Amino acid sequence: MTVIRSQIIGCGAYLPERILTNDELARMVDTSDEWIAARTGIRRRHIVVDGETTADLALRAATRALADARVTAQEIDLVIVATTTPNETFPSVATAVQSRIGMTRGAAFDVQAVCSGFIYGLAVADSFIRTKQAETILLVGAETMSRLMDWTDRTTCVLFGDGAGALVIRAGEGGGDLSDRGVFNTKLYSDGRLHDLLYVDGGPSTTGMTGHLRMLGKEVFKHAVINIAESIEASASASGIAISDIDWFVPHQANQRILDATARRLKVAPQRFISTIEDHGNTSAASVPLALDVAVRDGRIKRGDLILLEAMGGGLTWGAALLRW
């Protein structure tokens, strides 16, 4: 039986040039390199400079992904950008990317699910391809989380960074089994009752201002390990595979302790979890494609590998996606 699969044919990433180290943060708030590294695994993060926007980062990552895929802008049917830090309330970052790459056809829109945004965006892209509404899609995760930081709050400002990652996804044919290349399934979840665990205290229809990120770290940690592990298990089960069959896990880079605890819960060697958190921090919707790009570039992820992507973010939202590279 022939089926349509969403196949990844190119990836790209971009990080701002400005690097903010833990030692620099220690001069801003009551913290230290040792304190941050021990509790999060983060040593440094990339931060935009004045005048640098989410759309700027998205464009850089998108351009690299298009070049990697050897695809022109005019071949793209749809641009999806996962972000919680748009340039403006409207229009979308995706339309800015559409314009800047020179794409004059198709459509573009943003997806907002905070740190889970890229997984949500992949689910949307996969649905468009499987239903033949699009053949080639540019999917970007881009964030300037530094713009949401309260730089006097050491519990949050030490965690987040800025960046962007992108994939070019194209419809391909498969035989309908696990030997196919492409996306096998996506699993999405949310629980709006958990709003107060992770949110921004502002917005157009409340304060009229952007606001700052607020988080109950211990509660988020607890839910993250349980929810992420369960979404991974659900994705694997949906395709009839064992967790041990998965070659690489590419998680949202929130906290190294969350990654390690999830690996223990699933009885998976922690080395199979791609980690970039030491150098990137938490880049929200950009973290999964950034980590994916690193692992592809350094040769760990190879053609034919079975990959599990996962994330959890404010809302709370969470999800997983299983694919063959």
What does this 3D model show about the protein?
This protein is α/β, with parallel strands linked by helices. It folds into 2 domains: about 5-175, 3-Layer(aba) Sandwich (Peroxisomal Thiolase, Chain A, domain 1), CATH 3.40.47.10; about 180-325, Thiolase/Chalcone synthase (Peroxisomal Thiolase, Chain A, domain 1). It has helices spanning about 20-25, 35-40, 55-70, 95-100, 115-130, 155, 215-240, 255-265, 275-280, 285-295, and strands at about 5-15, 20, 45, 80, 105-110, 135-145, 160-175, 180-190, 200, 215, 250, 305-315, 315-325. The strands form 4 sheets. It has a 5-stranded mixed beta sheet, with helices on both faces. The chain has a 4-stranded mixed beta sheet with strand order 8-13-12-11, sandwiched between helices. A hairpin with a 3-residue loop joins β12 (about 305-315) and β13 (about 315-325). α3 packs across α4 and α7 (about 215-240) packs across α8 (about 255-265). The two termini are about 20 Å apart. The model has no long low-confidence stretch (mean pLDDT about 95).
